[in-house]
Amino acid sequence: MTKFGSTNVGLTSALSHLDWSQDSSSLVINSQANELMFFSLDTKKQIAASSAKDIQWQTWTCIFGFPAQGIWPGLDYTDVNSVDRSRNGTLLATGDDFGQVKLFKYPCVKEKADYNDYYGHSSHVTKVKFSADDKLVFSTGGGDKTVMVW
Hints:
The protein is an all-beta fold. The chain has 2 domains: 1-57; 59-150, no CATH class. Helix content is 0%, strand content 40%. The protein has strands spanning 3-4, 7-8, 15-20, 26-31, 36-40, 45-47, 80-85, 91-96, 100-105, 116-119, 125-130, 137-141, 147-149. The strands form 4 sheets. Strands 3-4-5-6 form a 4-stranded antiparallel β-sheet, with no helix packed on it. The protein is globular and about 45 Å long. The chain starts with a strand and ends with a strand. The relative contact order is 0.13.
């Protein structure tokens, strides 16, 4: 189990994604076992997802969670490798195992939501990230070992 301070957080696999709340009082985490958990840093305890619904997140890079539930193309929850929400909170970029970079509206809550897709990498996209001004998206490719600017 993964530790949170001296407390077990209950993850059954390695931590894969983590985001902070705007007031730095909470964390949302994902694991390689497709787990989604929320934590209060004040109490150092897990909080229910229903209690986390009104938390404002400074960033959103988690592949699982309410604002990213519409990004999944099918039932295999290993296809999306990276997510990044624009700083202005209107777009969500993803990088997947098919070499695609996709842009969704944020939050992306509709199942199989509409998106714009961009091809350029020869295999899986390992990371996507918006520029500081949200005008560009950077992506890195796993097999081609390239950085692309969109």
